[in-house]
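In the laboratory, one determines a bound structure by crystallizing the protein with its ligand and collecting diffraction data. In a computational setting the workflow is compressed into a single prediction: the sequence and the ligand go in, and a structural description comes out. We illustrate the idea with adenosine-5'-diphosphate.
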Amino acid sequence: MSDFDDDYDFDSLPTTRPAGPAAPEAVRVAADPARRRGANDADLHGILQQVFGYNAFRGEQHDIIQTVTAGDDAMVLMPTGGGKSLCYQVPAIARHRAGLGVTLVISPLIALMHDQVGALEELGVHAAYLNSSLSGEDAQRIEREMMSGRLVMLYAAPERVTNPRFMAMLTALDERGLLSLVAIDEAHCVSQWGHDFREDYLQLAQLHERFPNVPRVALTATADDHTRADMRERLALIGAREFISSFDRPNIRYAIVEKDDAKKQLLRFLNDEHEGDAGIVYCQSRKKVEETAAWLTSEGISALPYHAGLDADVRRRHQDRFLREDGLVMCATIAFGMGIDKPDVRFVAHLDLPKNIEGYYQETGRAGRDGEPADAWMAYGLADVVNQRRMIDESPAGEEFKKLQRGKLDALLTLAESHDCRRVRLLSYFGEMSSACGNCDNCLNPPATWDATEAARMALSTVYRFRQHSGLSFGAGHLIDVLRGKVTDKTTQHGHGTLSTFGIGAKWSEQQWRGVIRQLLSLGHLRSEGEYTTLVLTDSARAVLKGEVTITLREQRETTRGSGRTRRTSGSGSGKSPAAAALQADMDADAKARLAALKAWRSEVAREHNLPAYIVFNDATLAQMALTAPSTLDELAGISGVGAKKLEAYGREILRVLEA
Ligand code: ADP
Ligand code: ZN
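The predicted complex, in structure-token form:
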């Protein structure tokens, strides 16, 4: 081999700053401390169009990309699906073209590096990753590519940064002026405040100390103030410009339904609205995950389980299938989480209540990263409220922490019980003001409400009477039986048929009563206690009993609506291609046949390249091809998502598929 770096002996690299071999003159210029050279605007747009095949930057991408390309530090806060990757990939390409060398991308998700790098190579961008899964030979080859400066992007896990040998390589690279940029993905992992804290991230500040002239960009989808402050401080990003995008995910439709028969409700939701779609069903326990997956399979839906109790091997296999195959449903605990950046997840369903709004938003955020319409659907009921409260009460945490958890649960319950716009409430929880969205269950189908004040007083006074009568407290089921005047073994045994409130609430259904009790628990007028989760009054119950508080409840209604999917709004930020679903609605039989042929072709290519299908082309791009049926390469190039490299690699084949 004759590459100019082949004589470089990596294993003898000292762990302190080495003298480094002589670098070419042109490169030395870039090594100057004033390494503030980049590309102009035309170049940046050119990269977007030629390499990625997109027509316009989205939201703040343009500003961010200019800043980073010019060599300034940046902190990027954008919701999942907002388009963070481009914020370092475009600068990496621009700076590489300017002779500034390699961008180091720190990512905690080793499992995903293969696909991330594969996607870049598909675009004709020379990228690689270094992690423990590589053979020594492959790792050496990649190290050589990096040291030569030919590589545009190198992905590595944070623990590599503490590896002295790797640091020595970076140092040598920097001294030749070939360390262009450092991108820190999932940067919230540096904060102990969230649930994704990674010790290794604390080491990343070293990168700044060692390479003060190399610009850095830190990216995250977590927005709260604590995390933000931690990122700035712990990553030594003191002077970094901060870019905070709106956290709205306009293409996600939020719906929260009252649990009746949760499994049936889920099945109806899947059959009516998501036939053949990929999605995630979150459950609280491993057992329920297994049961739900088995049950969906028996109902003819391809579903797989995922939870921390499964073998690492099984987990990897299931995750891999979910990423690669079309239309799989993953039933999972929250162990299935960070880094699931499959863009075409069409729904996230919750069969159990999440812990808090942060969790809910993060989990539902995994739907619709491609900007196409997606659903966040949750079923919740009385038992969820009781269970979540009990889990907090029984946890070994300190009282201070429990109080915080209870407050967060209350905020989630308020969201679930609300009869106004869900999105307005969600965004305001994250400090963002907005107006009614028109794309949540309450906006689309404003719920009727009823005045449940009288019913609430009846329930509370019955709980009071139980205590008076025998000093005992009882659970919700028995309370409802007494209110509705149902004679059971238990009412007989405890003599509750003689209570003055026995049967006074017969005009309301059992379901209505469950709603009343759930609301009373959510509002804190009732508390559930002990192993049998019996109900007791709290201090605030007195105000309700005295009639000083009114209680309004949403009317129970059918939980799934008629489909109407094609009328949905998709996220309509600038630069977005029309939604695949909307395009499909416009298709005649010929176009549909073309789409089917294109999809079959795509699966074939994806299999050959060992990559998920969406990396070859995403659904919206395929739909656009099927609809417009381009007959020349030029026409094909005009479609969003078709960059120069893909045009060259696949253009002719696609035209052939379309012709046939
Ligand atoms: P994030 O990392 O913020 O969750 P990604 O970087 O994965 O989001 O981007 C989400 C999707 O949006 C990807 O499919 C990406 O290719 C696409 N995308 C990003 N920016 C643009 C753009 N300017 N025009 C069209 N599509 C874009
Ligand atoms: Zn709304």
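The mean pLDDT is 86. Keep in mind that any predicted model is a hypothesis to be tested, not a measurement.
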